[in-house]
Amino acid sequence: MTIASLPDEVQNIRHLLQKRGVTSSRLADMLGLNPRDVRRRLNGVTRFSIQEIRDIAEHFGIAPGPLAFVPPEVFRGR
User: Fold this and answer.
1) Residue 56: strand, helix, or coil
2) Is the pLDDT of residue 74 over 70?
3) Euclidean distance between the first and final Cα of the chain, in Å?
4) Taking residues 71-78, what's their average pLDDT?
5) In 3D, which of 52, 13, 5 has the Cα closest to residue 32?
């Protein structure tokens, strides 16, 4: 699976993590999940829940809507 074929929210979350210098292990700690489960979400194997998206957005001080529903090319411009 290429990055471009990942769901929009996964692309947006991956971009946010990269931009903020946060690893998947750190994200796992933030969400209270096993690092393997977070990697599966970041690789598009399983989906992030709405609550997980809300928690990520809250941690980074952004609204969850744009993180989940804005196409990645728009999000990258922010």
Assistant:
1) helix
2) no
3) 25
4) 56
5) 52
